[in-house]
Amino acid sequence: MSTYSENIRKISVQNLIEMKSRGEKISMLTAYDYAMASIIDAAGMDVILVGDSASNVMAGNETTLPITLEQMIYHGQSVRKAVKRALVCIDMPFGSYQGDSKTAVHSAVRIMKETGADAVKMEGGIEIRKSVQRILSAGIPVMGHLGLTPQSIHKFGNYNVRAKEAAEAEKLMEDAILLEALGCFSIVLEKIPAELGGKIAEKLNIPTIGIGAGPFVDGQVLVIHDMLGINKDFSPKFLRRYADLYEVIKIAAERYAHDVKDGSFPNENESY
Ligand code: KIV
After folding, report:
1. Shared domain check, 256 and 151
2. In this structure, which residue's CA is closest to atom 3 in ligand 1?
3. Based on the domain organization, do 266 and 165 belong to the same domain?
4. Pocket of ligand 1 contains residue 144 by CB under 6 Å
5. What stretch of H or E contains 29?
6. What is the spatial distance between Cα 88 and Cα 79, in angstroms, rounded to a whole number?
7. Does the annotation count 190 as an active-site position?
8. Is the CB of 123 under 6 A from ligand 1?
9. What angle do CA 135, 138, 139 make, to 5 degrees?
10. DSSP class of residue 93?
């Protein structure tokens, strides 16, 4: 299976903006380690996001809040080493940019310097304006993230669809316009009505990448563990499972344990 922009050697933020202007959809998946990132990159993904969802799917936390800057840098380094073509974007973790813009730029510079990533992602609109501006003025590309912003879970109290009401939808549109005006190169839109996703995509020149934001946005992102069916218990409406790796891995582990127990592994050919 081939991708449209397969002749691009290494995807840049400009390539993503060009994809939007010629109507080519952008594919994005998360990865947190070397092995998975090499497979996803070989599959021709446009963007690999080292998401702070690592806090949930890698570390087993209930929210994304506990993951630290050091842990994000560790995941980022592992992914970056594996990737040849995709644009690598790393989530700025909770607490690394919300306080003041000086801390924000310091955190972003550490991510870029220590991982070799291409960009950072930040959650929020007008509230984080100064931090976004300062990071952009340091020459670091920023991907915005609006709608459901998991780092603010304690403010909202749930993971429900956002911006169903007119006032919230209006604020979201204003935030999206602001992020584009500041210089962000793209925006993730999470769990919002499809119609609103389409309106924002139409209004902006930079790409919008949806997760639960319907088909009218400029690209899609999913968490790799969810789309591979490793997480059995997470099944929101927006998720399409492309594999059932929970069962594949469990059956392989059961067969291995069985063969060890009955002494059939290793056999003569598997011994020195
Ligand atoms: O952390 C993450 O994986 C994300 C995606 C859901 C967009 O932010």
Report:
1. no
2. 51
3. no
4. no
5. strand 26-30
6. 8
7. yes
8. no
9. 100
10. P
Reported as a single tens digit per residue, the pLDDT across 95-146 is 999 999 999 999 999 999 999 999 999 999 999 999 999 999 999 999 999 9
**Is 82 part of any domain?**
yes
Domain coverage including residue 154:
13-241
Could you give the angle at the alpha carbon of 265 between the alpha carbons of 261 and 266, nearest 5°?
140
Whether the per-residue pLDDT at 176 is higher than 60: the answer is yes
**Exposure string for 57-75, b = 16+ CB within 10 A, e = fewer:** beeeeeebbebebebbbbb
Give tens-digit pLDDT for 207-228: 999 999 999 999 999 999 999 9
Domain count, the chain: 2
Does the bond joining 266 to the residue before it have cis omega, within 30 degrees of 0? yes
How far, in Å, from the CA of 269 to the mean position of ligand 1? Answer: 45
Contact, 89 vs 120, CB < 8 A? Answer: yes
Residue 6: inside a domain, yes or no? Answer: no
DSSP 162-225: P--SHHHHHHHHHHHHHHHHHT-SEEEEES--HHHHHHHHHH-SS-EEEESS-TTSSEEEE-HH
